[in-house]
Design goal:
With 56 residues, this protein is mainly α. It has one domain. 79% of the residues lie in helices and 0% in strands. It is built from 2 helices and no strands. The chain is elongated. The protein starts with a helix and ends with a helix.
Length: 56
């Protein structure tokens, strides 16, 4: 009985992981506000905002 339960839970977990991966991939491909910007610019802006927040 416990082996069937283990296999069932394992398969359910794998199925859920695959669903989450497909879901994440689908939304990662959508055009977004920050996706068109250069990653270096986003990092510099983030660090500048972080420093400005720490100073105030």
């Amino acid at each position: 009985m416990s082996r069937k339960n283990f296999v069932s839970k394992t398969l359910a977990g794998l199925t859920e992981a695959i669903k989450q991966a497909v879901f994440a991939e689908r939304y990662a491909r959508l055009p977004g506000l920050l996706q068109g910007l250069d990653p270096r610019g986003k990092i510099i802006t983030f660090l500048a905002l972080l420093i400005a927040t720490a100073i105030t």
